[in-house]
Amino acid sequence: MQSPPAVPAADLAYRHVKDALLSGRLPAGEMVSEGDVAAELAMSRTPVREAFLRLSTEGWLRLFPKRGALVVPVAPGEVEAVVDARVLLESHAVDVVVGSDAARDRLVAELRGLVDAQRAALAAGDLDAYATHDAAFHLAVVAAGGNPVLTDFSVTLRERQRRMVALSVGARGERAPEFVAGHEGLVAAVEAGDAAVFRDRLRAHLHEAHLHRAATGRPDRAEAER
User: In the 8-state DSSP scheme, what is residue 24?
Assistant: First the structure.
């Protein structure tokens, strides 16, 4: 049996740094150096430099010659645009789902499982897993609508969603329990077959979770030092 092909060092560096960006381990405003990443991954600076260039092209990093790279904050306009898109996508899906008892029951069961997984992740102190389950919760709502084009579009928002979740829950996840409670309210609206209530709760939930905090683009460290 052949071994899978080795992943190029530049790709490994890219995935490593991008995961740190999206999870919040590298917060907005943080400076990161090629040397530090190269040492952490036990590789030369050349593949790390390639990864930094790629992340800069995607808008995640701003490069400063001989100094390193700055983690670019989430732009307020981007946050609002993503929230609006999510409200439209998820509300449309629930409009479709509530018309079928079977589809509604399936979605409620799936969402309850994801809420339970979020609570377990918080109990274990695993904020990365919490963020993953949070994104899965909202993707499950869109997918339940049965429109693959809208589902694919929702998938493209995943990276932005993941970073916003990392910003919104706080460095120690202090706000996460209230967001899980918000998810429970959304599940209750779906179970009741009330699409209008779901839409109102979703907008309030996303506004509180993302617009209130992530729009500032400030890392928790900066807030703690103020």
Answer: T
Nearest to 86 by CA among 147, 154, 166: 154
Counting Cβ atoms within 10 Å, is residue 200 exposed (0-12), middle (13-18) or buried (19+)?
middle
Give CB contacts under 8 A, 24+ apart, made by 188-197: 189/94, 190/94, 190/97, 190/98, 190/104, 190/107, 190/108, 190/111, 190/141, 191/104, 191/108, 193/98, 193/104, 194/98, 195/91, 195/94, 195/95, 195/98
Pure H helices in the chain: 9-23, 34-41, 45-57, 76-97, 101-123, 127-144, 148-156, 158-169, 176-191, 195-206, 220-225
Query: Above 80 in pLDDT, residue 210?
Result: no
Output the CA angle 196-201-203, nearest 5 degrees. Answer: 100
pLDDT tens, position by position, 93-145: 999 999 999 999 999 999 999 999 999 999 999 988 888 898 899 999 999 99
Give residue for tokens 């071994």.
3
**Contact in structure between 162 and 131 (CB atoms under 8 Å):** yes
| Cβ atoms of residues 110 and 118 within 8 Å | no
**Which residues sit opposite 71 in a β-bridge?**
61
